Amino acid sequence: MQDNLAIGILCVLGGGIGAQWVAWRFRLPAIVLLFGLGLIYGPGLGLLHPSAAIGRYFHPIVSLAVAFIVFEGGLALDFRQWRASGEGVLRLTAVALPINWVLGALAAHFVGHMHWGASWLFGAIIVVTGPTVVLPLLRHTKLRPRVAAFLRWEAILNDPVGAILATLVLEILVIQGNRHSGMFMVEIVPHLLFSTMMAIGFGIFPAILVRFLSARDLVPEILRIPIILTLAMSVFSVCNFIMEGAGLMAATVFGMALTNMHVTGMSELRRIKESLGVLVVSCLFVMLTADLHREVLERLSLPIVAMTLTVLFVVRPVGILLSTIRSDLSWQERLFVGWIAPRGIVAAAVAGVAGLQLGEAGYPSADLVTPGVFALIATTMILHGFSLRPVARVLRLTLSDEPALAIVGASGWSTDLAGVVHRLGCPVVLVDTYAGALAPAARAGIPTLKAELLSDEGLESLEERPADYLIAATPDAIYNGLVCARLAPDFGRQRVFQVSPGVARLDLYRGLSRDSRGKVLGDPAWNFTLIDTLFERGWRFRSLPFGGGVQGDGVAQEGNRLNIMTIRRGTAIWIRSVEDEAPIEPISGDTIIAMVSPDAAIAM
Which terminus of the chain faces fewer neighbouring Cβ atoms within 10 Å, N or C? Predict the structure, then answer.
């Protein structure tokens, strides 16, 4: 028993995180790898059958994990982003959902050969586009902010709404099967309204409580995040006890309320929940897919395949087209959103339970609901996962795939550096809080951003033109460190750099902590004063194609050139740092950006 448990944990945790790493390393959709891994573990090799191993606690565990995921998604829903995205988000979450439900039910009945009861349930389940699939895809694709907001809001909001809709449809079908149709207006509608209001109230009240306790210093920092996570699971459990599906709405509302009430200390929670979210999503997808029985897969037939294709190429596009008539969405945005609609964990979890209950109520073809939903999940994950980036690129809804650089602090030399990178055709943005400092760069056509990156507004502004690397180049070493520490979780600690604060302040024990600053740009002696002095003496940044006399790093030997970075187009930017454990050696075709003395420039 213990050996089986150890093997199961190893397969789920080790395999899931391993798949995430492979997906990151080779730029593949992680969800597809997780789904395939689960099929190999479960129906393929028979190594895992989680529901049999865990028993009756399997579905409650899955439900709690899904609640955490929608709570995490709720934390990302800032109403300011909703307003900035226009009416498209409202149409996708309020208008498109009922249209997709009706069209999905028609497809299930006329194409999938399901009876009407099973068809209405199938249509209700597939209206959700799960955040467990959409959010990881958005992290790996540089979509334009408005399009990304459309998909993010639709996925997070439709998940709990779709779960409640499926539960309501199931209740109505069961009642009709028992010939108590008159109970619909008497019991179900009031029960639905009460559950919805209860979920909203249970989501908002704990957020108010957290804000109250935090503002009055009544919660120690070490307990803040555990208390918030406990409240999220508690509101889910209480609301779900009253009505199945209401807990997901309550958890989502709780996350949204915390974000929009601007409770202090939420940045630490966001960082932790993102890491936990990756772990939870990895384990859930592997477990749910491994739990599929071979009999479910054997029920796949030509009508189910045809129904899946109809949902992909007819139901979703027509639903989006009808719901966005006379909206401010461009035709490219409508076409893209009409295609991208991967289903995820909520659809899988609801299908497994609802299909079984519908069959117990005596409805014919109820056994086709689960294989039909899983066929749609698998197909959308594969097709949408691999096609999202190419389709977005063709429709010109992506930002540049070239590695991008952000430089914080507009001075003479940083403007010169940004100009050289810009002229190479690499995306770059120069950031400063003072418009006058940015004016020379703006006149030269260099992209600029007037923002304070330590503010939420500044971070949101930077997200609109996402960068992959950052150099903090202001005269203030402490400010540079704060910016790098704030952005390191998003960029990666090996991708944020700052001008040296001075040799004495780099002591790992007595100096500035590595966690509180970025990597040192170049050598410890290259502080702001030195680089600024060299610039005043006529040193300028130049792009030097590797080869033809430009060899290796070669800084100390020549003394008339400071090699700052190496750019490999379409691949990466390597910024030189004394803290590099394995310096990158340029190859033919790379471009070295160096600060060159006037004499060396004449010699070139």
Answer: N
